[in-house]
């Protein structure tokens, strides 16, 4: 059945050029190809985000994007690629190369593809006259008013203002010519969506699987084969940094029943217990960070932690009354404790200052030999919590000295210290630094949290944490002085040495086992 449909569809495609003004083959979703034009992209000077935006939007509209091609600003290359794509796909979208300078030749290339001449377009000439003034015809701006002979213009209406957009989208046969500047492209695309809308809709389901791709590959292959005839596509996308699953498996087709059947098959055949319960996993916990929400989650299951959280929030609220955001920073080095703390502090700040536009300041005293994974996690956290990270290098005391002279307005540091940390037994929630240290108020809202509390909090809320904790590390310091915790070591049934994740450590007194 599938083969038959495909042949039918290919037949349609072979006569693509004659099909242009007919509606597309109803048997299959409408297809599209995207051509990104620009030397700067091939040189790595500009990152192509336009094709990504177009793919996302087209997919939502039910259009099946089949190919993206990135090519240079060259008339012949543009002409041959356009000709090829125009015959292969129902619609073609190009991005870039339509400016007034010599290096923008997309219009010429597309004209050449269809053996047309480039001519002044009366409507565009009028528009340019209004926009640039009479004299524009003798300037390079005239290029903006020229199109291939058979070009059509599509004027979008600005959804917000209700006005006609100043410049139209140009199309030639089934090729839609977009400008390369992302805001212009997006504006045109979003206001002209109706040109690309179809009756189709893709049905997508996803499974989050906590198993290695190599271990689930046979099941995926068998399922893909079984449902191929029904047009179901199964995708497998490993995520190296997620703490809760290793692979995202997608099941998708234009047929809802087929999608559901394939999903069920996968659920039945994948190893027991490796599927993440979508009700228990939150993919964006930072967006749902209401302070009350945390405490409530733990209220019945873990009443002791519930009270610890409430107590920590009280301390943070007090800190926010005593210090302005300019005077406060969090001591953040990517470790598990300050990761939990950061989430709490961020929530408290969002509640106290819902309209704020200043960032939360974070102090990062960078080790001489930091773990790469830790640095990676720092970067992600900076974006996730919109941090202003103040990075200091060198020994801690000296770094704090420098901080004091460079950022004299900072008065207090919120820290993820716990009583069980070295030299921390006698700390209280608000303790100034010791005599020979530069003067700061140290605020420690999670002093009485245990190792287990930290993990319960992080994992229950699906908070991201540094991936090293999933690979056998239970406490992180300098790379040359930190090892995996031997208590987490085991040998699997193929005799490979492996390490369990940090949250599995039973005896929490052994947390610092891997620190040299
Ligand atoms: C602002 C500040 C003030 C300090 N004042 C004193 C003091 O008065 N007397 C004293 O003896 N020691 C002080 N220290 C040192 C501290 O007691 C620990 O020795 C140090 O944090 C390492 O702790 P750890 O490895 O045991 O635990 P960690 O869990 O690594 O540290 C506990 C907390 O300290 C903060 N922190 C740790 N390392 C960094 C870093 N590299 N960059 C940013 N924040 C970090 C984090 O909030 C973290 O959760 C201070 C440290 C800082 C950051
Ligand atoms: Co079939
Ligand atoms: K893959
Ligand atoms: Mg710690």
Q: Which ligands does the model contain, each kind named once?
A: flavin-adenine dinucleotide, cobalt (II) ion, potassium ion, magnesium ion
Rg, Å, rounded: 29 Å
CATH class of the largest domain, named Alpha Beta
Shape call:
globular
Helical content class? 25-40%
Instruction: Supply the helix-strand structural class.
Output: alpha/beta
The N- and C-terminal alpha carbons lie at a distance of: 64 Å
Number of helices: 15
- Overall mean pLDDT stands at 91
Cofactor: Mg(2+)
Pathway: Cofactor biosynthesis; FAD biosynthesis; FAD from FMN: step 1/1
Subcellular location: Cytoplasm
Domain MoaB/Mog: 33-200
Compile the SSE list and pairings:
Elements: H1 2-14, E1 31-37, H2 39-42, H3 50-60, E2 64-71, H4 75-88, E3 91-95, H5 106-113, E4 118-120, H6 122-132, E5 146-148, E6 152-154, E7 169-172, E8 175-178, H7 182-191, E9 203-209, H8 213-228, E10 233-238, E11 247-253, H9 256-269, H10 291-299, H11 303-322, E12 328-331, H12 336-352, E13 360-366, H13 372-384, E14 387-393, H14 396-406, E15 412-414, E16 430-432, E17 441-443, H15 451-460, E18 489-491, E19 497-499
Parallel strand pairs: 1-2, 1-3, 3-8, 12-13, 12-15, 13-14, 15-17
Antiparallel strand pairs: 4-5, 6-7, 7-8, 9-11, 10-11, 16-17, 18-19
Summarize the structure in words.
The structure is a single chain. The chain has 516 residues and is α/β, with parallel strands linked by helices. It contains 15 helices and 19 strands. It has a six-stranded mixed beta sheet, with helices on both faces. A six-stranded mixed beta sheet has the order 14-13-12-15-17-16. Helix 10 packs antiparallel against helix 11. The relative contact order is 0.07. Bound molecules: flavin-adenine dinucleotide (FAD), cobalt (II) ion, potassium ion (K) and magnesium ion (MG). Flavin-adenine dinucleotide binds next to helix 12, strand 13 and helix 14.
